[in-house]
Write a structure and sequence with these properties.
Helix content is 59%, strand content 0%. It is mainly α.
Length: 201
Amino acid sequence: MSLHERGSRPYGSGELQQVLHEVREVSHKLKLTPEVKRAAHLCADAEATRYGHGVPHAVLAAAALYIACRENKVPITLREFAQASGADPRDVGRCYLQLLENMHISRPSLNGNGYVYHLALRRPVSDQALSLSQEILNTISERGHGGRNPMTLAAAALYIACCTMGENVTQAEVAEAAGVGEESVRECCKEIRALTKPPLA
């Protein structure tokens, strides 16, 4: 089911102002400041090109803010934007990808740095593992690997760091903490190991 078929409504003369109101509301909840202007421009462009017509206000606002924050390397997750806007994360994710495609926006490259601290693991990990995971993320970013879901990158880097430090954390645990699939973390770990020489654990 597309976004236009789920809870959609046609845009009218005052629709853009309502979307911008949603942008301001979500920004206030998440304490954003400079990112709002970019998100507002995205919403205006979406409305002008008629792409935004029929997309629920909260979904469009959350997706635009997510793009703006990724471009500004602000570590706020898509799930957090969905929660703040009251939208379904799956709808926000689809809208995010459709905005990139329909408005010809390059996918913002983000190495996951900062997202490591969003991982709510059930067991604590050492400061050394956290520090190493940041080093891993910096390394793969320098080598041009940054287009993945930042939470997947963060989960994979933390898993590899914990393995290197001899800490007992499983891929299933980091995947659950990141809210991503275990298979995605597994594939990302393979990519990271291929990019790092000498290979990490």
